[in-house]
């Protein structure tokens, strides 16, 4: 069995079948060797270079010099193969024999030639010099796969070598061959002596059965007997508008024919992984075993700002806060248990840093815990619960109300505010002040008792981005967007959308940071049961989204070098997370098990979800397939 196929068979026992587009199926054996998060980038380069490489013609049947038996009767041949009857005729009628010989009428035994299929040899010689280090090595990996598969398809034998090591040909395949190719590096270019040595070796091969490819830098001389020359160089003067897009120029020379293409390179983090650790699966770093705790399915996990921490309510009523790494190359830190209030239940909560800031309700009293300010944490802060017509929350704490915190300091005055959006679409806050005399030796002042304020009604959504509270109010036939900076005393109305919204989702901080006082950043406004208004002050689109889909968040994604904004949704069967853009729809993640709860942090572009049966918690970025966090438990629901 092919060693490459053996490697794939072993992996198939450990993981599910890798879903691939139909166009990439010919290279499945190769692509399965790589982690799933790298296959798309490698597959796109394969599809781009495959037409350039083309197909290898099958080895033709050719006749050897030596016969292997008797074939038919012919009229020409050596006299040692003359038919026995002809010799008898020569004895009986010698004159007639001579006449027939002169006329070419004698009969001979024809030989049976040695006809067999000779396997061709495909040789790939790679330049490991300094001009081919870095980005050109990505093309080397892809060309290795293409040429190997090309030879296998034609029944030829594939060998490869390094220009700087003349005479050494390797026959290794699969993972070990790619590793050896990437670790073959030289600080010098191939010399004329080394190229001549390769030419001598190729001369010994039958020119009709040897297909040799030289993959090198543009300035490297060509081996005389190389049938194809591929020159690879990085395009340093990319004229595209997106300056972050890197291109490789690949020039193919075959006899008198030349063809050139521009190869788009993957993102820098993906390219680095392909060159350094192409076969390392990073999901293992994200794994945490937490067998004693099982997440609750009453509400979705909640991210802290920037997606660095994740709070997950538990079945036993407790809360665990997990550290979410900033990169798939980093392992998550230790998780923390949050103690529940000794009395009452959590009414509203938010993850602030690595702590859970929450408001607990105990009868007619509300208490504040974990907020990052002396206004609400220097002592036990307890206030009376407002009247229900101003502030209403569900009983039992089945779903935490969204909570935000802002603090500003101006000269001798410090103001801290805790905002909450209740279930009746009221936005309220508790405000605490500290007025300091700023006199040396003066007594430290205590913050004032929090004062309750009603901010707005008919609030259909809110969020907190970059020290700004964002919320929207549906009234008077439209939806008003408000922005409240921490250093401002009152909110500012920045825009009005001419639709009465039912629900609103805000995009990332970047889009809002560059919006002026009377503009808004990326948002998604639900204007009917199946219609969503999506966009910014400068561009928007109305999309029809079936009510069977669960809308998770709004974001912008990069497609073919262009930004495309749209919605992140959970499919009707709960097995697929999808992105629905202005014109295209794509799958972000497919799950073999149904997803019970899902949440998204628009600012960091991260998703967190809990699986229905195994209660596994998973966290990943929108743009990376590798998991940042993967928490498994012992419990399985039936």
UniProtKB/TrEMBL annotation:
Superkingdom of the organism of origin: Bacteria
Descriptive protein name: Uncharacterized protein
């Amino acid at each position: 069995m092919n060693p490459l196929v053996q490697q794939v068979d072993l992996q198939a026992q450990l993981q599910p079948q890798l879903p691939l587009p139909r166009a990439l199926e010919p290279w499945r054996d190769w692509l399965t060797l790589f982690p799933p998060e790298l296959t798309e980038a490698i597959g796109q380069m394969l599809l781009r270079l495959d037409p350039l490489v083309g197909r290898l013609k099958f080895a033709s049947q050719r006749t050897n010099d030596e016969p292997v038996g008797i074939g038919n009767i012919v009229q020409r041949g050596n006299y040692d193969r003359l038919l026995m009857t002809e010799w008898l005729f020569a004895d009986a009628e010698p004159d007639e024999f001579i006449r027939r010989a002169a006329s070419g009428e004698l009969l001979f035994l024809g030989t049976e030639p040695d006809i067999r299929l000779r396997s061709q040899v495909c040789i790939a010689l790679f330049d490991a010099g300094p001009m081919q280090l870095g980005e050109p090595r990505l093309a080397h990996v892809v060309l290795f796969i293409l040429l190997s598969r090309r030879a296998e398809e034609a029944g030829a034998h594939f060998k490869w070598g390094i220009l700087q090591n003349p005479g050494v040909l390797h026959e290794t395949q699969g993972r070990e061959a790619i590793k050896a190719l990437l670790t073959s590096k030289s600080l010098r270019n191939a010399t004329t002596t080394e190229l001549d040595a390769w030419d001598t070796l190729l001369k010994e091969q039958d020119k009709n059965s040897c297909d040799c490819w030289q993959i090198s830098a543009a300035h490297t001389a060509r081996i005389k007997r190389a049938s194809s020359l591929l020159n690879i160089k990085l395009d340093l003067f990319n004229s595209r508008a997106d300056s972050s897009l890197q291109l490789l120029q690949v020039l193919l020379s075959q006899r008198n024919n030349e063809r050139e293409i521009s190869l788009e390179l993957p993102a820098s983090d993906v390219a680095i992984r392909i060159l350094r650790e192409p076969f390392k699966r990073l999901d293992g770093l994200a794994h945490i075993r937490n067998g004693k705790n099982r997440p609750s399915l009453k509400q979705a996990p909640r991210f802290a700002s920037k997606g660095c921490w994740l709070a997950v309510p538990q079945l036993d009523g407790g809360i665990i806060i997990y550290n979410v790494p900033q990169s798939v190359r980093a392992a998550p830190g230790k998780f923390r248990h949050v103690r529940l209030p000794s009395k009452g239940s959590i009414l509203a909560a938010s993850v602030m840093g690595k702590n859970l800031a929450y408001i607990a309700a105990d009868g007619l009293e509300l208490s504040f815990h974990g907020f990052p300010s002396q206004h609400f944490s220097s002592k036990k802060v307890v206030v009376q619960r407002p009247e229900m017509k101003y502030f209403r929350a569900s009983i039992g704490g089945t779903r935490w109300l969204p909570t935000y915190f802002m603090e500003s300091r101006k000269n001798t005055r410090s103001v801290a505010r805790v905002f909450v959006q209740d279930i009746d679409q009221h936005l309220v806050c508790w405000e605490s002040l500290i007025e300091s005399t700023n006199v040396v030796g003066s007594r430290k002042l205590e913050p004032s008792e929090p004062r309750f304020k009603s901010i707005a009604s008919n609030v259909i959504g809110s969020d907190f981005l970059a020290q700004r509270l964002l919320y929207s109010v549906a009234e008077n036939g439209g939806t008003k967007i408000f922005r409240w900076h921490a250093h401002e005393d009152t909110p500012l109305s920045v825009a009005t959308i001419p639709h009465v919204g039912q629900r609103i989702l805000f995009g990332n901080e970047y889009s809002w940071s560059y919006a002026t006082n009377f503009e808004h950043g990326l948002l998604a406004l639900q204007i009917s049961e199946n219609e969503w208004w999506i966009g910014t002050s400068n561009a928007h689109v109305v999309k029809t989204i079936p009510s069977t889909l669960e809308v998770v968040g709004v974001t912008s994604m990069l497609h073919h070098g262009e930004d495309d904004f749209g919605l992140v949704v959970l499919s009707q069967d709960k097995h697929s997370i999808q992105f629905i853009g202005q014109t295209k729809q794509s799958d972000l993640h497919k799950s073999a098990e149904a997803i019970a709860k899902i949440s998204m942090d628009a600012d960091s572009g991260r998703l967190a979800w809990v699986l229905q049966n195994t209660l596994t918690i998973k966290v990943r970025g929108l743009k990376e397939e590798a998991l940042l966090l993967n928490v498994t438990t012992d419990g399985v629901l039936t």
